[in-house]
Amino acid sequence: MNASLYRVAHPADPELENGYKLCGSGDVSYLASWAGGDGLTVVAVFTGDEPPESSDEMCASYTYQD
Q: Rounded CA gap, 53 and 7, in Å?
C-alpha cells in the first residue's frame, strides 16, 4: 500500500463530536492517507516524534467514502 504521510505542525489531540478525541492517547504528530479500495480513503493518526514505519503504530484510523 502506498500512503501519503503528513507531519502536523502543531501537534494536538482535538476534540471531535460527542467528546471523542482524534487519537485519544496523545497529541497527533503525523497523519497518513491511502486509497482503501472500492471508493474509500483511509486516514491514519499517529503520535510520536519519529515518522511511523507502518500502520501498526497508529492510534486511530478513519475511513471515508470518496
A: 13
Among 49, 65, 45, residue whose Cα is nearest residue 57: 45
Strand order, beta sheet including 40-46: 4-12, 28-37, 40-46, 60-65
| pLDDT digit string, tens, across residues 49-65 | 999 998 889 999 999 99
DSSP per residue over 23-66, as a string? Answer: SSSS-EEEEEEEEEETTEEEEEEE-SSSPPSSGGG-SEEEEEE-
Handedness of CA 39, 45, 14, 8 (dihedral sign): negative
Helix or strand or coil: residue 10? strand
What's the pTM value of the predicted model, to 2 decimals?
Answer: 0.89
